[in-house]
Design the sequence.
């Protein structure tokens, strides 16, 4: 069983405070519905979802001991969503050899008409710190859509190493891994390639 922190905060010298708290399915479903049905968020694969669908999805996550959802705030304004999961309890267990300490992650930044320079990178650093410091991950696993090049670049920036493309039930995914040492040697931590 995975242990999740109740809350998590990180202060960015330039961008200010990032904070995470567990999703409240009833209270947060309308906002999350706005995000996941927006065209920018097509890779989240919930474009046709209703508010009820989003609420039900997050009720199921809240009841799980191996899947967690966090609403992220930047300067006290909700602006991103993070899902953390145990890959051994997903279909990924059939496509790679899961190790003890593997933690899976999905991240979504809210659609906006007023982007803040560096915001998405700040979110990624916050998420990686949550996974390594808050969850004690020994290795982070991601499986974004193989065609989602913006997230591949962002994953590379924080230290993920792409292993191979795999076929999952709903997509072709780029299976990638990041250890604490990969993260510490990444551009996100100031290391130049």
Sequence:
């Amino acid at each position: 069983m995975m242990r999740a922190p109740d809350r998590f905060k990180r202060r960015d010298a330039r961008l200010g405070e990032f904070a995470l708290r567990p999703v409240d399915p009833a209270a947060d479903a309308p906002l999350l519905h706005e995000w996941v049905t927006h065209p920018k968020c097509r890779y989240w694969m919930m474009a046709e979802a209703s508010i009820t669908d989003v609420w039900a999805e997050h009720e199921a996550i809240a009841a799980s001991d191996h899947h967690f959802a966090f609403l992220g705030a930047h300067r006290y304004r909700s602006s991103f969503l993070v899902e953390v999961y145990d890959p051994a309890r997903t279909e990924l267990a059939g496509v790679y050899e899961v190790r003890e300490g593997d933690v899976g992650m999905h991240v979504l930044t809210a659609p906006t008409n007023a982007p803040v320079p560096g915001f998405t990178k700040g979110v990624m650093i916050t998420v990686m710190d949550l996974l390594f410091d808050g969850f004690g991950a020994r290795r982070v696993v991601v499986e974004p859509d193989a065609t989602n090049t913006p997230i591949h670049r962002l994953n590379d920036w924080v230290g993920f190493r792409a292993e191979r493309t795999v076929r999952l039930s709903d997509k072709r995914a780029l299976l990638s891994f990041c250890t604490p040492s990969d993260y510490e040697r990444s551009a996100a931590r100031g290391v130049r390639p």
Summary: The chain has one domain: 8-189. The chain is about 30% helix and 30% strand. The chain has a mean pLDDT of 94. The longest strand covers residues 77-85.
